[in-house]
Amino acid sequence: MRVAKWGNSLAVRLPASVVEALDLKPGDDLNIHVRGKNDLALERKMTREEALDIMRKLRRPLPPGFRFNREEANER
After folding, report:
1. How does DSSP assign 37-48, residue by residue?
2. For the segment 35-71, what is each residue's pLDDT rounded down to a tens digit?
3. Contact 25, 9 (CB under 8 A)
4. Is position 75 within any domain?
5. Does some domain include residue 17?
């Protein structure tokens, strides 16, 4: 990959193999982690919809008669 100037920033084009592996689409956000002097890790950020879908799958029913008490919760 070649580094190019893009405004005041630098940019690289991602090879098709990386795009396919991360299932990237235009507008997706990436997290880039520097793991060492010459080592990076890329990961696609979850979309809001993907995060909500995971949370919905984890949802469990509350016990019968459960009532949330904000003051009691703040005492902890």
Report:
1. TTEEEEEEPPPH
2. 999 998 988 888 889 899 999 999 888 889 998 899 9
3. no
4. no
5. yes
CA distance 45 to 30: 5
- Residue 28's Cα: distance from chain center in Å? 10
> Whole-structure pTM over 0.70, yes or no?
no
- CATH code, domain carrying 24: 2.10.260
Considering the chain, what is the average pLDDT of its residues? 90
Higher pLDDT, 17 or 76: 17
* Residue 76 domain flag: no
Residue 71 falls inside a structural domain: no
